[in-house]
């Protein structure tokens, strides 16, 4: 699927009525339409960041408050990115890697809702997009993805205060265009 396709929107818009059974869905739509976004949930809110609007890659971020059933634009990221990943870690949102319109990036940004702005964090060691990420224990993990035209089998982990380290190659082999979930 090309980052500019509308398929990802359609799937998300079909899901939205489940969030608001009252039937007043006019305010459930993202304030702007884009694909190639990343999403994470934290403290009763869904954060959707970056993506592609058909013309350019984006820095914009929106938050959906599940209690109020409304989208709000929050502070934009410093880097345009799509095909990236978003995770909630220690009460903050981390935007990881992705494609900035020219190249895959290794940059990492952190949003602290108490401060209301994005701060640059130590970059990953490997630039990548289309990868899986998750939090397990006290670490963020990133698995596989793509770097230019190469599918990766590299795993990195991040520990607060220690930064990123390559933890090895995955026994799963090369992987990209997937999601990961820890139960």
Automatic annotation (TrEMBL):
Q: Please give the SMART domains that the UniProt record associates with this protein.
A: Kelch (SM00612)
GO biological processes:
response to endoplasmic reticulum stress
Q: Which Gene3D superfamilies did the record assign?
A: Kelch-type beta propeller
| InterPro entries per the UniProt record, alphabetical | Kelch-typ_b-propeller, Kelch_1, NRP-like
Signal peptide extent:
none
Its protein name is Uncharacterized protein
Native organism: Sesamum alatum
């Amino acid at each position: 699927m090309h980052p500019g396709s509308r398929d990802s929107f359609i799937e998300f818009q079909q899901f939205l009525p489940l969030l608001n059974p009252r039937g007043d869905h006019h305010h459930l739509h993202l304030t702007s339409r884009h694909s190639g976004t990343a999403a994470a949930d934290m403290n009763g809110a869904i954060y959707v960041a970056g993506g592609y609007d058909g013309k350019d890659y984006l820095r914009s971020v929106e938050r959906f408050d599940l209690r109020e059933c409304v989208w709000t634009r929050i502070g934009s990221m410093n880097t345009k990115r799509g095909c990236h990943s978003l995770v909630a870690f220690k009460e903050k949102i981390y935007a990881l890697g992705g494609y900035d319109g020219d190249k895959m990036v290794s940059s990492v940004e952190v949003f602290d809702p108490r401060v209301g702005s994005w701060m640059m964090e130590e970059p990953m060691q490997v630039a990548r997009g289309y990868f899986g990420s998750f939090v397990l224990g006290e670490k963020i993990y990133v698995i596989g993805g793509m770097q230019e035209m190469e599918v990766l089998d590299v795993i990195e982990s991040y520990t607060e205060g220690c930064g990123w380290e390559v933890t090895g190659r995955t026994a799963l082999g090369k992987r990209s265009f997937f999601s990961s979930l820890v139960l």
